[in-house]
């Protein structure tokens, strides 16, 4: 029997059904999800090592929003919307890492320093007399780090990042060392709704069936699965198999639970974190594109000359992810068929219910 640890506010309701098919096929839902879910959650951006130098600007997209993550000359971190307050032009059009001392709007050449303050305006004397530079700063975005991983949040009402991540903070911090590096970064386009792929990655029922030669040899028998539920986060903990431990070393400083176990976290709304005792940390972020397509972003971190090499990691992850892509694209067709009626969950699908309860709650919120 699967073991479950949970808090009262996050207990999955096994009497509730899965989300109806319309949640995966209604194109009008995407705009509501963006406002009610993605704008109110902490969203993973990536590796803080991208901003190791002062006067660096990282231009990226998160949940459909273009943002600037900046390290200024004083090594202060800040994030802003990549939008000029004057006429809404994108300030820095090219996604990527830029070495910049200031930001110059390509439309009307308004100049901003790296603290988001307006510092220069062509033909300023032609504006009304009450024009004031201080009225037009760049719009800030909350930005926090954990273990050198950057997250942003568009809401001031969402709890601080470490509170949001809950159980993860204490369980995984020792997997990350000073030697941890980004080893693999890939992006996949999948023909399914983002929630479909998220559900699948939370599904612990399908592992022995869909992944008999990929994930199952790591996780072993479902009788050893343990679940934990926090407010925004859930966990599948599985003891690593004897075969896996014979092939890979483990970090000696880890606790016994971490040294002999595999942590698979689901983080609301669209994120997964996998942690293995050989120093591997992997992020999977699922970005909505259309009602029937998403982008799955994979980042694998490890310790060079200790964790498996990048080519092996990329091959192993792609093997089970290709199995998941095939399944989820088939499920999406099933949702679109018009015949599916939402059913009840198996205990091994409890993590899906946990996240779907959060989705329902967010979409039903009045403001």
Set out the fold topology.
Layout: E1 3-6, H1 22-25, H2 29-36, E2 43-47, E3 56-62, E4 65-71, E5 77-81, E6 96-99, E7 103-104, E8 111-112, E9 118-120, E10 140-146, E11 149-153, H3 161-165, H4 168-172, E12 181-190, H5 194-202, H6 207-210, H7 216-219, E13 226-229, E14 233-239, H8 242-247, H9 256-259, E15 261-267, E16 271-275, E17 281-290, E18 293-302, H10 310-336, H11 350-364
Parallel strand pairs: 1-13
Antiparallel strand pairs: 2-11, 3-4, 3-6, 4-5, 5-10, 7-8, 8-9, 10-11, 12-18, 13-14, 14-15, 15-16, 16-17, 17-18
Helix pairs in contact: 5-10, 5-11
Distance between the termini: 41 Å
Structural class: alpha+beta
Tell me about the biggest sheet? 8 strands, mixed
Distinct helical segment count: 11
Summarize the structure.
By secondary structure, the protein is of the alpha+beta class. The chain has helices spanning 22-25, 29-36, 161-165, 168-172, 194-202, 207-210, 216-219, 242-247, 256-259, 310-336, 350-364; strands at residues 3-6, 43-47, 56-62, 65-71, 77-81, 96-99, 103-104, 111-112, 118-120, 140-146, 149-153, 181-190, 226-229, 233-239, 261-267, 271-275, 281-290, 293-302. Helices cover 25% and strands 28% of the residues.
Can you tell me about this structure?
The chain has an eight-stranded mixed beta sheet with strand order 1-13-14-15-16-17-18-12. It contains eleven helices and 18 strands. The chain folds into two domains: 3-39 and 171-364, Alpha-Beta Complex (Naphthalene 1,2-dioxygenase Alpha Subunit, Chain A, domain 1), CATH 3.90.380.10; 43-146, Rieske Iron-sulfur Protein, CATH 2.102.10.10. Helix 5 (194-202) crosses helix 10 (310-336) and helix 5 (194-202) runs antiparallel to helix 11. It has helices at 22-25, 29-36, 161-165, 168-172, 194-202, 207-210, 216-219, 242-247, 256-259, 310-336, 350-364, and strands at residues 3-6, 43-47, 56-62, 65-71, 77-81, 96-99, 103-104, 111-112, 118-120, 140-146, 149-153, 181-190, 226-229, 233-239, 261-267, 271-275, 281-290, 293-302. The two termini are 41 Å apart.
